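Project outcomes to date are best conveyed with an example. Our students and postdoctoral researchers have been running inverse folding experiments weekly, and each run begins with a structure described purely in tokens. The record below, which covers 366 residues, was selected by the lab manager from last quarter's runs and is presented without edits.
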């Protein structure tokens, strides 16, 4: 049995290496504009940006199998740019060698990922006070982080009791809001009034943020011609929607790079925590940063939304619904956040895979 297990690890490691070879990644064609944006926002040179994309591609594949190898001791995974590897947390140190043979960097942690998810689920079912701005599974800290307005830590006391030993409280100056008042660029208009950004084209239309419109709301395109209407929408709780377009509009795999060549979406493989990510929006254009956490719950004034991904990318009102990509892989649509693109900020996106699965949609790829 031991010999078979070692052989299985070797086969998988070989498959991973083949799947994410630099030549294969290069064939997908990360554009010069994409690399330039990563250099600008992540402080990298051209070689470092290209190398990071290769490393992140390997990590994206590896994280899909790491959980299976870790088994019940799985404590979460994230990409560590300082070592260029996927770090996998495990509560059982005996699992480390197996994970290391796969190319991951094992780290012994106190809490299982399943326990963190269960604790967060308890918070999702709770009534949160206004002083609490949100909570998320903080993979790197191996904890459920509850964010509160500065000086208001006592407001989280009840939530800490519900989450138990896995919880930690962090003060923040953030005041999350929705990015609904869109403008300029690849925008679309709702009922000839509000505007939002297109997320990704899918068969029959496109996906965007749920707070942008409700089923039946009419949509016109950036040229103000009839485009279609909201067929499905979910907000709060979730923040996603599907707009069915009319025959005048053709779905493409393009994402507006704002000033550079369009990014051509080739798939929707989910990136790891710690991976680089870029956002396209009709107000502030193209900006990049890193994935900080997944499955974040955000308490907007209009209601709570769960299952969001937290990033350190900036955004501003008008970017709602816009595209998030990692390399050429679709990641999600803009929900909301805090700050701006002058001073920086935190922005959350709704993962695209959940939208596709929930609504039974097919992403348009090139």
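After processing, the design step wrote out the following sequence:
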């Amino acid at each position: 049995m031991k010999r078979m297990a070692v052989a299985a690890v070797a086969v998988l490691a070989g498959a991973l290496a083949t799947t994410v070879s630099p030549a294969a990644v290069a064939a997908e064609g990360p554009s010069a504009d994409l690399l330039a944006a990563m250099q600008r926002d992540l402080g990298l040179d051209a070689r470092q940006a290209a190398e990071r994309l290769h490393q992140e591609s390997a990590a994206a594949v590896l994280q899909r199998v790491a959980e299976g190898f870790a088994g019940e001791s799985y404590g979460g995974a994230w990409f560590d740019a300082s070592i260029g590897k996927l770090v996998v947390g495990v509560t059982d140190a005996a699992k480390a060698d197996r994970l290391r043979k796969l190319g991951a960097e094992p780290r012994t942690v106190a809490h299982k990922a399943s326990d963190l998810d269960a604790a967060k689920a308890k918070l999702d079912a709770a009534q949160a006070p206004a002083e609490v701005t949100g909570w998320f599974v903080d993979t790197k800290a191996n904890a459920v982080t509850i964010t509160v307005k500065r000086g208001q830590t006592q407001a989280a006391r009840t939530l800490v009791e519900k989450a138990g030993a896995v919880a930690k409280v962090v003060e923040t100056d953030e005041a999350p809001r929705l990015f609904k008042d869109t403008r300029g660029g690849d925008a679309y208009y709702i009922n000839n009034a509000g505007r939002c950004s297109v997320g990704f084209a899918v068969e029959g239309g496109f996906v965007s943020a749920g707070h942008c419109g409700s089923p039946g709301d009419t949509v016109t395109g950036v040229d103000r011609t009839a485009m279609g209407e909201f067929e499905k929408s979910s907000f709060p709780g979730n923040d996603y929607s599907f707009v069915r377009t009319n025959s005048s509009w053709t779905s493409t795999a393009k994402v507006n790079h704002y000033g550079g060549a369009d990014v051509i979406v080739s798939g929707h493989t989910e990136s790891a925590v710690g991976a680089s990510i870029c956002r396209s929006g009709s107000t502030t254009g193209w900006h990049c940063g890193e994935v900080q956490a997944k499955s974040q719950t955000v308490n907007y004034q209009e209601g709570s939304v769960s299952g969001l991904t937290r990033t350190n990318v900036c955004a501003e009102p008008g970017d709602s619904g816009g595209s998030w990509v990692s390399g050429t892989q679709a990641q999600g649509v803009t929900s909301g956040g805090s700050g701006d693109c002058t001073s920086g900020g935190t922005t959350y996106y709704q993962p695209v895979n959940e939208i596709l699965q929930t609504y039974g949609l097919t992403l348009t790829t090139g």
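Confidence is low (pLDDT under 50) at residues 1-27, 181-185. DSSP finds eight helices and 22 strands in the chain. The training component of this project remains on track.
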